[in-house]
Amino acid sequence: MSAITIPHEHEVSPGLWALAWRRLKADRIAMISLAIVAFFVAMMLASSLGLVAGDWSKEVGTNYATPTWFKDDVAPPPPPGTPEGKPQDDPTVQAEPHAEGKGAEDRKDESSVVDPLADVLKEVRTETANAVQAPVVARLETLPFGADKWGRDVLKKVIKGSETSIFVGLASAVVAVFLGTILGALAGFYGKWIDDVMNWFYNIFTSIPYLLLILAIAAVLNKKGMFTIILILGLTGWTGTFRLIRGEYLKHKEREYVRAADAIGASNTRRMFVHIFPNVSHVVLVQISILVVAFIKTEVILSFLGFGVPVDVVSWGSMLNEAQSEMILGKWWQLAAAGTTMAILVTAFSLFTDALRDALDPKLK
Amino acid sequence: MNGDSGNKTMSEALVSVRNLRVNFRIDKRTTFEAVKKISFDIPRNSTVALVGESGSGKSVTALSILGLLPHENSSVLPGSEVLFGGRNLLDLSQRELRDLRGKEISMIFQEPMSSLNPVFSVGFQLSEVLRLHMGLSPGQARARGIALLGEVGIPEPEKSIDKYPFQMSGGQQQRVMIAMAIACEPKLLIADEPTTALDVTIQKQILELIGDLQKKHQMSVLFITHDLAVVGEIADFVVVMRDGEIREQGAAADVFERPRDAYTQALLQCRPQLSRRAQRLPVIDDFMSGHPVSYADAPERQRGLTGAEPIVLDVVGLSKSFYSREGLFGKREFKAVHNVSFKLAKGKTLGLVGESGSGKTTVGLTLMRLHEATGGKAIFDGKDILALSNKEFMEYKRRIQIIFQNPYASLNPRFTVGHIVTEPMLIHGIGGSEQERTNMAFELLAKVGLPEVSFYKYPHEFSGGQRQRIAIARCLTMKPDILICDESVSALDVSVQAQVLNLLQDLQDEFQMSYIFISHDLAVVKYISDQVMVMNDGEIVEMANSDDIYLHPQHPYTQRLLSSIPRGWEGAHPKRA
User: Fold this and answer.
1) A132 and A245: one domain?
2) How far is residue B486's CA from residue B504's CA, in Å, rounded to a whole number?
3) Would you say residue A7 has pLDDT above 60?
4) Pick from A44, A271, B128, B224: CA 20 to 30 A from residue B455's CA?
5) Which residues 429-488 of B have a C-beta within 8 angstroms of A?
6) Which of B90, B65, B87, B213 is nearest to B152 (CA)?
7) How many contacts (CB atoms, under 8 Å) link A and B?
8) Residue where a domain stops, chosen among A118, A152, A186
9) Mean pLDDT, residues B92-114
10) Contacts of B411 in chain A (CB under 8 A)
11) How many Å apart are CA B239 and CA B257, to the nearest integer?
12) In chain A, what residues touch B27 (CB-CB under 8 Å)?
């Protein structure tokens, strides 16, 4: 038998993961939603690498430039802010902002101090328009998704905002699930006083209203930023996962395969993480994807309430926050853009989560 | 039932199954043919046994008669017919079927514990059937319910009718299920493995009850089972199925005495028989490959102790109690194992029999230190292994190994077989390198009769018998002195059981391992054991050499156990010639 070396080409059998992936692939809704999620993640990566929307903060359009496809016949047509009132469909216009956008740096400070009040704004705008001899920047009347009050391209803001929102969602979900899994595994596996202590801890945590807890931690940390939010969400979000994983461990530690591992002399840690963990990892995966959705929404709420990301960072939540005042003026496109994008991602992610759970645990269906 | 039942003709059929074909959809592209165009009759006033191993399609056949197949993934193919009273049951609407079920055709299932609703009293569930189908008033239904409970042999039916299922034993629950099934005097009773989950003594009672009720109510019974021995005493006709096809059907006397099909012959031969001990059990492959081996012709194996054998394990006064909290400070003690002492001889097998709850499994787990013993000693290699610290015990752990009952649960589904088999070597530092361990794993897999490619596969790709082989290979890596087999063959089909038993005996011959063989199946224990220890309520009732205990049982409990073993055809119908 010593002649046996690593044998000839053997067919690698599909493991449970491979089988789950096969089931997932057969599910059309899963694949469509996965594609959407992948698109968003790709967008997020591209924007964080600066490939797209790196210049989101540039004011390329007129203030509250309307979406290209929207004929604003309710509100009065925006006054020609730029020297030549360009027709909407003039192709040369499209090329201009990109060509001249970089020269617009100096204009930024000026317009960021502009009072948001509409009439004043109008005045200022016409003033500048008249005063400027050589318009360095041709501001666009219309943009694909319109512009915000400073004339920043909403489309780019949405893309840049996705970077914050998705990253916060993913990272905090990973932190929360990691905490929940470790604590749940310890509580479920060892039981006895460890379980009791963990459960007290859990009960205290869940007895405080969620948002209050978040706001309290935010107030204590007193430092705005993406990592603060991730920390807050991660520290508060582990509870559900903890209960689930604890239950799974309670169930699995009595299973025969774990007994068998005990019988061959596997240590506690080995049983807990080498034997049981792969068998509950599908729960972990599903938990992560559920929490990503939840945390994207929570981040939006936090930013909306002003506890979220700092002003120099854009997120869907801060966009919605801005949209609040814009809505009064009837400028709905920022709200629509941020809201729709978030809804698409969250819906796709949720559908994907459902499909993922079905694929990983086909008996549940 | 007596011998003349075989004279009944097939013509007066109550149910005729014609060309039944059932497909299961596995995913979008693949379907699985569970039942492949089978035809058989259930005559009036008779018992038909539908016999087959797992995956033979016997339960699917029964479910399609009742229209209970899951609609999402199964389909009865056109051309199939189940004729009952001139109607094709497969064409009926759900509504018409509901009227039929429970009234004309009723069914009892394998697990009484999960077939009864735990939140309703027995009486409520029983009278529900009566009110639904017979239109009785609540008062009438209750009176009839009490009568029915009395008929199926429940003690004190007036009181029992208000009990909840959890207040009854498994056997009583199955009786309640039977009472519900016969409540509306059905013409056909379908019993799907009704005794498989029960202890032998209770199995016998339930079999007798079904037999009596069949005669009394002049109904027909379709009795589904994997074990031919069970139906030997009650069946008039036998239908043997395998892989969705009927291998053989006919009057019970013909099938049992003159089986024509190789598979039927194998089924009859591969069960250990009480009369003698074959060196090797005949296995199904012998028959299917055309070289049938008769159990009676196989050379005899000698079992039994002389008393001179070296002792490897000396257990003295082993006790294990479980405590449950009661009240604020009190706790209640439950003695699962009480004062059990025995000696295990080298290279021999100690059989441990008892009914569920007798503590036999607890003995095994406590010796492995998977449970902590409450008292007693276990001397192994000069040391009391129960008193060692965890660290000290580590050295001994590999020398006592266990094979569990359920091969589907005892292998980690996320590990490849290679990983499963090499893990113990890794933990105990056996084999110097990955390469060496892999080679050893290949050797062991070959030894237990698995091909080399198994190394790279996952447990879910194997059948029950093959999985049990993997579990055995895992234990062998540690070259244990003692192997505890905890119901290790109970969950396997009879044909596979024979193969695993043969393997265990071969390995014992080769490695001189000592076995503690725990089982509720007395025939198997008798076959494989040198010594047998009978347990009841946590205590040893009787202990003796295997042959002695079966020939001359001393204790009444042992006698009762032995008389409950299904005798099969031979036992029920001794040859009249």
Assistant:
1) no
2) 13
3) no
4) A271
5) 435, 438-439, 442-443, 446, 452-453, 455-458, 460-461, 471, 474-475, 478
6) B213
7) 89
8) A152
9) 82
10) 257, 260
11) 14
12) 23, 26
In a domain, A1, yes or no: no
CB contact under 8 A, B414 and A6: no
* Of residues A153, A127, A130, the one with CA closest to residue A142: A153
Q: Is the pLDDT of residue B576 over 70?
A: no
Of residues A106 and A177, more confidence is placed in A177
Tell me how far apart the alpha carbons of residues A113 and A106 are, in angstroms, rounded to a whole number. 13
Q: What tokens does A105 get?
A: 């740096």
Q: What pLDDT score does A84 carry?
A: 43
Q: Go through B305-339 and write b for each residue having 16 or more CB atoms within 10 A of its CB, e for each that does not.
A: beeeeeebbebeebbbbeeeeeeeeeeeeebbbbe
Assign B361 to helix, strand or coil.
Answer: helix
pLDDT at B384 over 70: yes
Range of the domain at A79: 61-152
| Alpha helices (H) in B398-449, listed in sequence order | 417-428, 434-447
Structural domains counted in chain A? 2
- Is residue B304 predicted with pLDDT exceeding 60? yes
Q: How far is B412 from chain A (nearest CA, A)?
A: 5
- Picking from A99, A134, A152, the residue at the C-terminal end of a domain is A152
Does the distance separating the beta carbons of B405 and A256 come in below 8 Å? yes
Rounded Cα distance between A101 and A222, Å, is 36
- Residue A276: name the closest of A246, A233, A309, A318 by CA: A246
| Pair (A229, A116) in one structural domain | no
The mean pLDDT value for B133-145 works out to 85
Predicted confidence at residue A179, as pLDDT, reads: 92
Pairing assessment for the beta strands B245-251 and B383-384 based on DSSP bridges:
unpaired
CATH of the domain at A206: 1.10.3720.10
Q: Give the ipTM.
A: 0.74
Share of chain B above pLDDT 70, in %: 95
Helix A277-305 / helix A154-190 crossing angle, nearest 10 deg: 140
Per-residue confidence (pLDDT) for residue A95, from 0 to 100: 42
Q: A280 and A160 in one domain?
A: yes
Residue ranges of domains in chain B, CATH in brackets: 261-298 (no CATH), 311-572 (3.40.50.300)
Least confident of A4-18, A167-181, A266-280: A4-18
Does B95 touch chain A if contact means CB atoms closer than 8 Å?
no
**Is residue B427 within 8 angstroms of chain A, CB to CB?**
yes
B-chain residues near A253 (CB < 8 A): none
Task: Give the bridge partners for B82, in sequence order.
Answer: B17
| Cβ neighbours of residue A208 closer than 8 Å, sequence gap 6 or more | A216
Q: Do A259 and B394 touch (CB under 8 A)?
A: no
Contact (Cβ atoms closer than 8 angstroms) between residue B349 and residue B531: yes
Q: How far apart are CA A300 and CA A298, in angstroms?
A: 5
Cβ-contact B478, B430 below 8 angstroms:
yes
Angle at B398 between CA B392 and CA B402, to 5 degrees: 125
Cα–Cα–Cα angle for A186, A190, A195, nearest 5°? Answer: 70
Higher pLDDT, A328 or B3: A328
Quote the CA–CA distance of B276 and B302 in Å, as a whole number.
Answer: 10
B413: contact with A, CB 8 A cutoff = yes
Cβ atoms of residues A110 and A74 within 8 Å:
no
pTM assigned to the model: 0.75
